[in-house]
Amino acid sequence: MDNIEQYIEALIFASEQGIRTEEIIYCLQASFEQDFTTEDISNYIRKISEKYNNDAFAIEVVKINNGYQFLTKKQYHAAISLLQIQRSKKKLSQAALETLAIIAYKQPVTKTDIEQIRGVNCDYSIQKLLEKELIVITGKSDAIGKPILYGTSNLFMDYFGINDIKELPQLKEVTDGGSSIGEQAE
To answer: pLDDT tens digits, residue range 13-32?
Structure first.
């Protein structure tokens, strides 16, 4: 029971959004089969906050929207912004580009349709394109199982400098017109 503070610290750290005092109490009571009060939790959180107020730490405990969260201290925000900008500018993989092209030309399209065209699983590419907000979920198909339909986003339009999907080059414009297998060059 000496390490309750570490349990609370772990709960705050593991929570993707602010964790409320009630949630902390619930987790601790379920783990230790002992009652905790709001005052108990407030005292532990105060101790954790004091610990992270030390200049040796780049993070701090912040109360936001009635919950607690670890956030980076303000003095490090500029460096973190640069990292986020740098990461967001990373190029798309060949697989993601192929998946994006299929979605752009065939939208609205299901994951199964994309996978039939590419011949491989597209879960990762679709997830990355959703994270980069280049594609969006446009609804559900009427097919069996009601699969999700994907389409391009407004950010896609901005990124490629087009106003309408009809402005994409026609597939015949994209091909190089080179010799195909079986054709003889003159």
So the answer is: 999 889 999 999 999 999 99
